[in-house]
Amino acid sequence: MCAAGLACLLAVVAAPPALAQGYGGTVADIMTRAESLLSQNRANEAIVQYQEALTLCTTPAETVGALQGEARAHMAIQEFLPAAGLLEEAAQRFPDDPRMADILFLAGVARRQGGDLAAAAPVLRRALEHNPTPDILPGITFELARALRLTGKPDEVVALLKDFETTFAMSPLIPNALYALAIAQHDAGDLAASEATYRHLIEAYPHTQATLESFFELGRVLAERGGRRAEAGEFFRRYANGAPGSPVAARSMERAADLAFFSSPKEAALYYGVAQAKALTNPTTSTPDLQVSRWLGTKKAIAGALASVWVVTLVAAVALALAGGAFVLMRRRRQRRAARAV
After folding, report:
1. Nearest to 195 by CA among 207, 205, 204, 185
2. Interior CA angle at 256 toward 220 and 247, to 5°?
3. pTM score of the predicted model
4. N or C: which end of the chain has fewer CB within 10 A?
5. Domain limits of the chain?
6. 165: phi > 0 → left, psi -120 to 50 → alpha, else beta; which?
7. Cβ distance 252 to 239 under 8 Å?
8. Does residue 291 carry a pLDDT above 50?
């Protein structure tokens, strides 16, 4: 028999399990100390306390509590996959625990944050199967949709989120859910539905981060739909103006410039210049599609040259028009003089 098992056997003889204790006191004492350390951002020390509690004769409820607490401590120091493992251990060992939906919800979030996207969705589906309380049901639904989107399943995301706003009418997650829905609709190729969802988000929830991010995404949708270049450029500029320090602001201004390149090269050159400045000062995103292109400087130079040519052409056209008008006027005067002479 292992030392922990022997200790538990002796404790059963000596006292009720709830009073089992080690050098740090009873299980309740140790758990209280662990929670206090965790609230003080001393996660490593809290982990030690939770682990000590598990060496004692814990009840099933105390074991789940200790595993859950240790997992939260690991998440506090961004050790997400170890946290997920602890939570899934609790779910496997004590499937009838009333906190099961919460535990699986947290495990799914930890899987996603740890980059294990393939495992996150199944865990979150299990959380939905355990009758989650109304306070966490919107969060589980949204997290599942996010995991599905990140694993390339836009149709499932659309099915999951299309009624989110009406089903969870009071949830603060509604703007984020609408934003995720619009992206999924775009990914699924339904540009009209995506545009409608973005416009609804912007109108109904104007002062949210999701709305700000939607400016860039709506610009992309409008650019793809065709014939909406001016409006698409406007939304790209609105994003850059609303988030001037964003890693995506430079790319947003470059996209706006691309859309104005032929219709207004002077404006395009200006936007390219802004994009260059932001690319030098703002943080850089790791997503290639959201980085400025390697041709940014070249495009700015060409736009500037086109703007100069267009100015010269415009001046020449005006001069020709004026000269032509003067010629017509002189001709008419001569005709009138000739008529009077007759």
Report:
1. 185
2. 75
3. 0.81
4. C
5. 1-150
6. alpha
7. yes
8. yes
